[in-house]
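Need tokens for this chain, all 659 residues.
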Amino acid sequence: MCGIVGVRSFDGAPDLDLAIRMLSRVPHRGPDGSGLFRDEHVALGHARLAIIDADGGAQPMGNADGSVWVTFNGEIFNYVELRRELIGLGHRFVSASDTEVIVHAWEQWREDCFERFNGQWALAIWERGSRRLILCRDRLGVRPLYFTRDRHRLLFASEVKSLLADPRLPRAFDRVGLAETMTFWSTVAPRTVFAGIRQLPPGHVAIIDERGERLFPFWQPDFPERGTEPLQDLTQNTAAVRDRVVEAVRLRFLRSDVPVGAYLSGGLDSAITAAVIARYTDVPLQTFSLRFADADFDEGAFQSVMAARLGTEHHEVTVRAGDIGAAFPEVVRHAEAPMLRAAPVPMFLLSGLAREHGYKVVVTGEGADEVFAGYDLFREARLREFLARDPDSRIRARGLELLYPWLARSPGAAPAFAREFFGRHLDAADPALSHRPRWDTTSALLRMTVPHPDWESDVTAGLLERMPPSHRRWDPLSRAQWLEMSTLLPGYILASQGDRMLMAHSVEGRFPFLDRDVVDLAGRLPGRHKLQGLDEKHILKRAFADLLPDEILTRPKQPYRAPDAAAFFGADPPPWIEEATRPEAVAAAGIFQPRAVAALVAKCRRTGGVRMSNTDNMRILAVLSTQLLHRQFIDGDGSSPADHAPAEPMTVTDLVTTR
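Here are the structure tokens for all 659 residues:
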């Protein structure tokens, strides 16, 4: 991965010093070099993590006559096939990079080129003749892209901290963005938590020219009408899933000029990706795992089983609660968003482990839960739909006791509570029936906030208005998947817990389950093939049963978790907590009520953060991360002492000074 920045000026040549400052804020995204291009209207910047064609892939990159320039963060995994096709159409290449494929693909197909890309990207294309700036982001939002504009200029960048290199940019929270975060766990693009700063929605293109700004999708999640799914044969579908996933893993493992490792969590998804690498390539594999000192969170036994099965060279880092508290401020600075869980912190430490062993690229299992229906939320929704047909049935309600077996206080341990909690909002016509319990629980955080008109915004209604009209004919599981793909996946899994934690240590993550062809196939499968009864990811288990040990294949679904409140209020709490939660600091940030925060902090100190409720864990994480975010990005500008200059070697193409 890399980092990109840019300035589109509407009244004179862009400020080159500003572009350099923007680039200097993301050296972690590209430590292998940097580049700048400037003409009379635009400045493009690139921080490079060299993975493909280290010698010939420097950016920004232009075409033969200099009429088209691109700065690009990501990988186009099918660039070899596209290059071959473009050569057949008469294009001549001077490098072996996927970046040059983007340049020629734009020349050949213009906006239609993005549908042809199988990869993960955020990019900017500048057409000098037409003075058009084109921004594009991959289908599911693996790579980030932020922008802000006024009547004088538009700024874009991979991270918000680059935009804040402009001292004229106002710094304030967007209250609706915070309300979305305290409901969905993340904002919903194009909104962010920063006023005046937008993110390009996944699967979208923005074209900025003299006539204004045009935003449109080149891809959106879609599903067939329930009962008309074109692929009905389970055996044939299982074989197709196997073929698509194997090819997706091979593309991501082999298309690299540097070694590629693999994360191994102990769960099904990373076990499949690692097993495919071991079976279908002849390249030695190194694997990386998280261990936890607290046995309640540790999956080391399953990781060891899989590593031994595959014969990998295995590495692990053991995380203690104190490690999470110590690293949290730096993690928030990289995440650039409030967090309701501490889970991103161990992922930050894991990418550090990979980098310590010389790895720039890792394959991971993210996306399988959204694409193949693996979350407990989908099982919960299936049971709630069943209960909605006869809400008074005590027999039907007993099914709720099967949920969340990995929780110490699972619904099975309190069936009366389960019936009352999961029995709310049982409107079968509600397209968000699957998500109401989560959203209701999370939005309780807003009760701690300082009254503000924007808190009254119905963010759930706003999200549902964006659903395509065809959703009324989808399987309920498809509606639930659409909601996950539009909220948690891009905003949290791939951002706070994904790209930001990987790139903090200059590591690129590759996600085979988010491959274009895998997602397309999974979207056309009947819901019962993905969630059969309450067996999540049913077809995925069938497809790879021969590659996995029984311990992995049959283990109950257990989501990745980390210590939350206990990481901050143990025997030796980190010193920054006192400052962040002082009543004066809370009042200055203006988001949470100081008295409510003081009471919550006192409770955490009294209990050591142990055995806190789910809601209280979210509350304290929301408070701590938002307070840190205010200090770093509202009072400050998001920079760190290390952000002093773009990475060397640096190349500059300046058409303004060389004319």
